[in-house]
UniProtKB/TrEMBL annotation:
Residues 1-22 form the signal peptide. It comes from Lygus hesperus. GO terms for molecular function: odorant binding. This is Pheromone-binding protein Gp-9. InterPro entries: PBP/GOBP (IPR006170), PBP_GOBP_sf (IPR036728). Keywords: Signal. Pfam families: PBP_GOBP (PF01395). The gene is Gp-9_0.
Length: 153
């Protein structure tokens, strides 16, 4: 997995983690599976989206949108953490273990993601894997470079 992909995946994962509440790997993997479920459907399941937004360990509920989770699905696929439509649980656990509780991680990740969302057309329920990732990776490389230094990748 390239450093840029790893760094950006880490940034997005931090957005979903509330370290102070001690989110377990199992709970986090469950939230990823829920996100992937409605990314792979032609329409977003409003009940699933509402459930994720109401979950206590989501730091910024407004940022957990169908578009964001679809983007996360793209990142997971591009980084090799999804194979044959199955989540690589060991790989996810490894990424989680590399994340610290440094607030700077989350700050950079949130900023990069907000910029990506603000500058892209709203996506449908299905994920347009190539372009969305490419735009965010290219336009916000400086945010990612800064995060890379923090994570010492």
């Amino acid at each position: 997995m390239s450093n840029t992909i790893h760094v950006f995946l880490s940034a997005i994962l931090v957005i979903c983690l509330d370290v102070s509440l001690g989110l377990s790997s199992e709970e986090f993997k469950s939230s990823l599976l829920n996100a992937r479920k409605y990314c792979n459907e032609s329409q977003v399941d409003p009940a699933t989206l509402a459930k994720i937004k109401q979950t206590d360990y989501i730091k910024d509920r407004d940022i957990i949108t169908p578009q964001v989770t679809c983007f996360l699905d793209c990142i997971l696929k591009k980084s090799g953490l999804v194979e044959n439509d199955k989540l690589d649980e060991a790989g996810i656990s490894q990424v989680i273990s590399q994340l610290g509780d440094n607030e700077e991680h989350g700050k950079v990740g949130v900023e990069a993601l907000k910029k990506c969302i603000a500058n892209k057309q709203m996506m449908s329920g299905k994920c347009n894997a190539g372009e969305y990732f490419k735009v965010c990776e290219h336009e916000y490389a400086q945010d990612l470079s800064f995060l890379s230094l923090i994570l010492k990748l």
